[in-house]
Amino acid sequence: MGCVGADRPGIDLGEGRRRWRALDLGTTFAFVESDAPRVTCRRHGVVVCAVPWARHDSRFTRAFEDQVCWLAVNCSKTAVAELMRVAWRSVGAILERACAEATREIDLLDGLRRIGIDEIAHRKGHRYLTVVVDHHTGRLVWAAPGRDRKTVLAFFDQLGEERCTQVELVSADMAVWISGPIAERVPHAVRCVDPFHVVMLATEALDDVRREVWNEARRQGNRQLARELKGARFAVWKNPENLTDRQQAKLATIQHTNARLYRAYLLKEQLRQIYRLPAAAAERLLDRWLVWARRCRLPSFVKLARTITEQRGGIIAAIEHGLSNARIEQINTQIRLIARRAFGFHSPQALIALAMLKLADLCPPLPR
Question: What is the pTM of this model?
Answer without folding.
Answer: 0.82
